[in-house]
Write a structure and sequence with these properties.
single chain, alpha+beta, 23% strand
Length: 132
């Protein structure tokens, strides 16, 4: 379902700790038309789906088209993010306030990685709320 809406995806087949979306379309107002996105999926106990993702990664040089800095975006990574930061990724920290995981038999009745990707899309669409 994510690939149908957002394009080619890859995912961690061993631990389920990330989802990669290629060429995620950005609305006007950014210095790029598309970005590759890596959603950091919580794993362990408890992990996803009980716990919502809080981080997603994009190119570290992402900016608004007018060059303003972006709130909740860390272009150089932070403590504990070395693996992705070393590969040239910066990350957004987006905390989901009310995560209600979908049940195994009804993906329409709760939150999933698709709803998180929709939140990512909203973050890019409403970039004015992200300005520092």
């Amino acid at each position: 379902m994510i690939a149908q809406r957002y394009g080619p995806v890859r995912f961690d087949r061993e631990e389920g700790s990330w989802l990669y979306i290629e060429k995620f379309q950005l609305p006007q107002g950014w210095n790029k038309r598309t970005v590759d996105i890596l959603i950091d999926i919580p794993h362990g106990t408890p992990g996803y789906p009980s716990v919502a993702p809080q981080w997603f990664w994009v190119d570290h040089d992402l900016r608004t088209d007018d060059g303003r800095s972006i709130g909740h975006f860390f272009p150089a990574g932070s403590a504990g993010s070395g693996e992705y930061a070393e590969k040239g990724w910066g990350h957004f920290c987006i905390h989901v306030q009310e995560w209600q995981p979908a049940g195994p038999f009804s993906l329409d009745d709760g939150h999933t990685l698709l709803t998180y990707a929709t939140l990512v899309q909203a973050v890019f669409r409403d970039r004015n709320t992200l300005r520092q």
